[in-house]
Amino acid sequence: MHSQSICFVSCSIVDCRKVYQKLNPKLREKLEEKQLMYVRTFIEDLDVSWQNFFRTNNKSEVESYCQKAGLEFEWLENNGLKTRKVRQAIATHPTTGEKVFFNQLQLHHISCLDASVRDSLLSEFGEEKLPRNVYYGDGTAIEDSVMEEINEVYWQNSVAFPWQEGNMIMLDNMLVAHARNPYIGPRKIVVAMAELTNNN
Question: In what order do the strands lie in the sheet with 176-180?
């Protein structure tokens, strides 16, 4: 951590192997079988633009990237773009061979937003045009109750520690997930990526 905010700053981490092990076996099986479909809708002046996300203003380059990456894409009115991609919810670690709960469910599922933000987005855009959402791989909705169960398992198995200036943490991001807890004031954390794993 480079600088400390006014308020107590902590980081939470959780062992993704434990999350996998502690989930209801029926839910684990369902997620392994159905996988997850991530849906991004890029609308001008909302969240990140497709130009920034794909680092180009050229639609042909975006289409070429999507085709190579196996992303379904659809151009929308007013220069918008929607993408879909089915990915695994459960992964096998390439070194240890262990099963890990490895996905971005909490980042994309609408239930994980603050109620006021969620209600505002749904009122303004409806579910079809939310900037981010996630479904089961067959396109059916992931129930809020499922997200509640997953979130509870995360909380039960997470460990929080206080950041102090000069601290450094090194994580295998497939084995361990991390979160930013609320804070007040300025804060700067420098992040570097090391060896990446192709997890297709």
Answer: 158-162, 10-15, 176-180
Pairing of strands 158-162, 99-101: unpaired
Q: Domain count for the chain, please give it.
A: 1
Specify if 186 maps to a domain.
no
Ranges under pLDDT 50 in the chain = 1-7
In a domain, 174, yes or no: yes
Instruction: Tell me the angle at which helices 144-157 and 25-34 cross, rounded to the nearest 10 degrees.
Output: 120
107-138 pLDDT, tens digit per residue, is: 999 999 989 999 999 999 899 899 999 999 99
| 106 and 112 Cβ atoms separated by less than 8 Å | yes
* Nearest alpha carbon to residue 70 among 85, 87, 89: 85
DSSP bridge pairs for 169: none
pLDDT in tens, 39-56: 999 998 888 999 999 999
Find the largest Cα–Cα distance for the chain: 48
Taking residue 158's Cβ as centre, other Cβ atoms within 10 Å add up to 17
> Containing domain of residue 155, as a range?
10-35+88-180
Phi and psi dihedrals of 163, rounded to 5?
A: -80, 140
Phi, psi torsion values for 164, nearest 5 degrees: -135, 150
